[in-house]
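Succinate dehydrogenase hydrophobic membrane anchor subunit
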Amino acid sequence: MSNSAKTTWKIHKFTSMVLVPFVIYLMLKIISISKLSYEQIIDELSSTWAILYILIFTVLGLFHMRLGVFEIMEDYVHDKTLKKILKIFVSVFILGILTLVCLSLLLILIS
């Protein structure tokens, strides 16, 4: 295993360990806000901590996903041109998701 592969593996494992408490908290939060009214949910989600939590969770989750997809492409896509195109497509897709999350949070803050 090369140094690059070891580093990628360590980063992937680290992000997965960091995401576990985020997912547990998210599941508990979803259960707790499911009984609230729309206005109460907006109030819950518009707090600074909730927005910070959502941003960190989204960035870490998307970074973790990108690492995993790129590793799969390294193993199974052998055509260099196709691999480049797929990496660009995945990166644009992830940036699109991140943009939508940021815009959604901005709308929550504004309302």
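thats it. DSSP finds four helices and no strands in the chain. Residues 3-110 form a domain with the 3 helical TM bundles of succinate and fumarate reductases fold (CATH 1.20.1300.10). bye
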